[in-house]
Backbone:
């Protein structure tokens, strides 16, 4: 069984957001009431995210900050060094959650090595909690077999109506690992689905709101990315939308295993 830590719902994703755009996005989200900001070393925006949080005047301890360590920093002292670099850019003493962004491609670096280093970072106070991202069922089981496994709080994976990832989601949840769903709108593709559009009309909501409500109905923390305050507010409001069991089932039928994030170094995905 994994460690329990509350991931505020929803979070704000910052992938592909840079400089003044990400600063404005984070500030806007915090003003609206978001308290969970998700970044990563690979996004090259940690300094801007940190600046936005600092300038928001909201106490640091009230904001849940996640960052991620890229797979080229997984060996030796790389994990702790990378996290220290992220903290320096964020201008923070700690993050709330540090994730391994992707498992080591072809298991080049043994999982035992990099998860032990990540857990050491937790013990050092560089992060309050640890987790993983883009791990498969087999990789989750391997992680849980290791000493650091009992401290894994979440597996951050792609989840949206076109990629329900049900087997992996249910496996993680059964093992006590929370699921964080990124790209919950499939970069806008879900808005084109007539099933979602029809359900949205019934609720006087947007298709995006219905998609987010569907992901949240699975017990998943969503981290949509948005630069516009009205969209951020709509994403917050989506969590107050309750779908019927029939509506959830209709959206379930849209799952076709359509991945947005599938780089060459991806693990062998669960079907």
Residues:
């Amino acid at each position: 069984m994994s460690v329990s830590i509350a991931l505020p719902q929803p979070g704000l994703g910052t992938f592909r957001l840079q400089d003044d755009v990400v600063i404005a996005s984070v500030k806007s989200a915090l003003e609206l009431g978001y308290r969970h900001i998700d970044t990563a070393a690979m996004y090259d925006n940690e300094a801007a995210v940190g600046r936005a949080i600092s300038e928001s005047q909201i106490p640091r301890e009230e904001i849940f900050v996640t960052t991620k360590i890229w797979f080229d920093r997984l060996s030796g002292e790389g994990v702790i060094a990378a996290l220290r670099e992220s903290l320096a850019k964020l201008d923070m003493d700690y993050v709330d959650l540090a994730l391994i962004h992707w498992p080591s491609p072809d298991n080049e670096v043994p999982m035992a090595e990099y998860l032990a280093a990540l857990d050491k970072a937790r013990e050092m106070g560089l992060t309050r909690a640890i987790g993983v991202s883009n791990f498969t069922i087999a990789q989750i089981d391997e992680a849980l077999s290791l000493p650091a496994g009992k401290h894994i709080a979440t597996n951050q994976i792609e989840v949206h109506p076109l990629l329900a990832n049900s087997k992996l989601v249910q496996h993680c949840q059964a093992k006590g690992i929370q699921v964080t769903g990124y790209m919950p709108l499939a970069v806008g593709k879900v808005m084109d689905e007539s099933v979602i559009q029809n359900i949205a009309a019934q609720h006087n909501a947007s298709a995006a709101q219905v998609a987010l409500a569907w992901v949240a109905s699975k017990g998943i923390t969503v981290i949509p990315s948005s630069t516009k305050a009205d969209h951020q507010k709509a994403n917050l409001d989506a969590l107050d939308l309750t779908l019927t069991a029939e509506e959830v089932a209709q959206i379930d039928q849209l799952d076709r295993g359509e991945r947005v994030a599938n780089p060459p170094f991806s693990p062998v995905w669960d079907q």
The mean pLDDT is 97. Residues 176 and 239 are 22 Å apart (CA to CA). The chain is about 40% helix and 15% strand. The longest strand covers residues 127-133.
